[in-house]
# Entry
Amino acid sequence: MPSAATARSPEPKSAPRSAPRPVPDVLAAVDLGSNSFHMVVARYSLGQLVIIDRLREMVRLAAGVAENGRIDKDVAARALACLERFGQRLRDMHADSVRVVGTNALRLAHKKQAFLERAREALGHPIEIIAGMEEARLIYSGVAHTMPSAPGLRLVVDVGGGSTELIIGEALTPLELESLQMGCVALSERFFRDGKISAKRFERARLAARLELEPVHEAFRRRGWETCAGSSGTVRAIGEAIHSLDGASLAITPAGITRAIEYCIEVGHVRDLQLEPITEDRRPVFPGGLAILAEVFAQLEIKEMHIAEGAMREGLLYDMLGRFRREDARERTVRAMQQRYHVDVAQAERVEATVRNFLEQTRETWKLEEPLAHLALKWAARLHEIGLDVAQRLSPSRRVSARERRHGGVPARGAAAARTPGGLAPQEALPRRSGRAGAALGPQRGLPHSAAAARRAPAPWQERHRAAADQSCRHAALTRGALPRALAQGPSAHLRGPAAGSRLPAGERLSPAGVQRAQLRLFRARSASVPRPARRDSQRRSGTDASAAASRMSREPQRSATSSLLPCE
# Structure
């Protein structure tokens, strides 16, 4: 029977890349925002998207999410009624491809599964809850595709109901993305809940927004931009309100924002905001959105902002179109991460083929019918090795010099070089130790890298980690005297199994599971070799003591486990 190191299963073949799919005639995107629900339907004609229908309803979902994560029943009923109308319109429009996403309010809601199931039934399509960075990317895509192209960098600001997104990009590519936990609904509920507006309340609201902007505003100002655009209904309402107060203003400026704040303080209550752009359903959240935008202007030192026609729902449409054309931005991101973290692409493809086979066998049993199930599994398989490179970069015990990077370790001198393979002296190659004597930290840090190197061609940094792990295991075993001579040769050398008396063939290495077993045996041997303090006389005499009996019983399996490690002479 072949050993664990030599037994290999046939390598799975990676699935061939499919050809681009034809673009459907009708595409639809639904944005379940924290303030409003939006739906946009477009027809793909002559290589471009033509908007044929739009729907928008103010739901204020963020206001219905309690501190314990539950969604208020009245708000949930209002949202479900809106989704039923959206679903009916989608069925009437015969949309071939529909994508529905939830944003900040659904991200914050912890007890939302029942609501999502009912929402899926009402809409007729699954709901995908996206992260803040993905929301920022989609917002920039919608703005960039609907605004005239301009040279240089562009800043995009989106003030939503539960979050605010800041993006700097060039052409169609976002370069700096940030999603902040502040929105017009949340800020209005916090500082303008009763509808009263005053200078002191505005100052407090702006201070809260300033604290959220504090960690990111310097990075955005350092990168800089040439043009600035604002998206979302809040920014549009503020811009149109400024134009109503000053007919000469064609863009949002710091002076226009100051004038809008003065107007709100003058009227004193949200019900008295009688400007035409501020609709009745917009009034309760208008002061919060104005405070956020005012602080964004102040902290980022924005001089002028133009209103963009597109937003996240248009970004969803263009993102769907790109996937049909094999231009999925997420695929590009995964490939870029593979290159950055030196992933073995061939190995990742084999893992991907294996887990896809597992998914096909368990999809029905485990009810993995969500559209993102296979995509998430595919990306995880492609990126599962990046931890090896990240651990190497972050490990404080492996800050090596240029000479170590060239030669894979610290060269030994004298007799130590003759005793140590690869020219590594034990005291120089061992990582830093802590605690009692012989408690090396090397195996825990090095063995995962040795396991990775055992199954494929090792990179130079993996060779270095494997050498450190071998030295640590060998040094600990020899100093403690608890392992057989075979185990003292290190995890990547010839080891004797616990029951079988055969050694591995020459030149073979342990499988990852074998390395883990060797590490466990080493740990047990160390634990068994530590002298235990003598018990008191009273404890020796109390043979019926329950704690002493339990202690003796708990040590029995450990003795039997360590007895199998003794040399078989």
Remarks:
- The longest strand covers residues 48-58.
- The chain has a mean pLDDT of 75.
- The chain has three domains: 21-131+312-325, 148-308, 409-526.
